[in-house]
From TrEMBL:
It comes from the Bacteria. Gene3D superfamilies: Jelly Rolls (2.60.120.10). Residues 151-217 form the HTH crp-type domain. One of its GO terms (molecular function) is DNA-binding transcription factor activity. Keywords: DNA-binding, Kinase, Transcription, Transcription regulation, Transferase. Residues 9-114 form the Cyclic nucleotide-binding domain. GO terms for cellular component: cytosol. Signal peptide: none annotated. This is cAMP-binding domain of CRP or a regulatory subunit of cAMP-dependent protein kinases.
Length: 223
């Protein structure tokens, strides 16, 4: 229950209200192992997913077999698969794969298509929270489009890093080098070469998954 309370989907809801929603909707919790598929590309969208533990990567395969990473679901309580529930598409255009381990709450889509016959307040809260989350994700998608519209690889890297600034310009990357390359839509060797060039130019310092911006002004010139 604690992991569910961390989810924005259940924001401002008591444990009792959450339990009522789960019971009324017929929700279930499923556990997945490494490389298991949560939902397949071309599956019919039937459920909203809430990550309780672990991580799930949302991917799309091209006709040539190349995997493109669309996003990573890592924070406890984050939802995924929600957009397809309200579209006319009859199937997913992406798929969700587990990195190592995951526990996922699955809520049937019919629960979001109608109001409770008793006009329950917790049902209204859940739907409002879902709309709020989807609005924020639309904003983040716009940021991803800005990233992909960058003209050069260095511009893409600069925008990606600038959106991840932490204290003292330190950035802890959650992605592997290969995953970052997929996210930016470039080949891994090209990404590695450009990162090394930026290091040689004194813009960044790299240690494993840790990146420190040494020259913020130079980095921001590429935005």
């Amino acid at each position: 229950m604690e992991n569910m309370k961390e989810s924005r989907l259940f924001c401002s809801m008591t444990e009792e209200e959450i339990e009522k929603c789960l019971k009324c909707s017929g929700a279930m919790i499923k556990t997945y192992c490494s490389d298991e598929i949560v939902f397949h590309q071309f599956d019919a969208p039937e459920r909203l997913f809430v990550l309780l533990e672990g991580s799930v990567t949302i991917c799309q395969d091209t006709n040539f077999g190349k995997r493109n990473i669309m996003t990573q679901i890592q924070r406890k309580g984050d939802i995924f698969g929600e957009v397809y529930l309200f579209m006319e598409h009859k199937h997913y255009e992406v798929y969700g794969v587990v990195s190592e381990y995951a526990r996922v709450l699955q809520i049937p889509k019919h629960f979001f298509y109608r109001s409770c016959s008793n006009n329950c307040r917790h049902h209204e809260k859940l739907i409002y929270n879902l709309i709020s989350i989807m609005a924020d994700k639309a904003y983040m998608l716009n940021r991803k489009l800005q990233l992909m519209s960058c003209g050069t690889l260095r511009e893409k890297i600069a925008r990606f890093l600038s959106e991840s600034f932490a204290e003292n310009n330190n950035i802890n990357l959650s992605m592997t080098r290969e995953e970052m390359a997929d996210y930016l839509g470039v080949a891994r060797p090209s990404l590695s070469r450009e990162l090394m060039k930026m290091k040689e130019d004194g813009i960044i310092e790299i240690k494993g998954k840790s990146v420190k911006v040494l020259n913020e002004k130079a980095l921001l010139e590429y935005l």
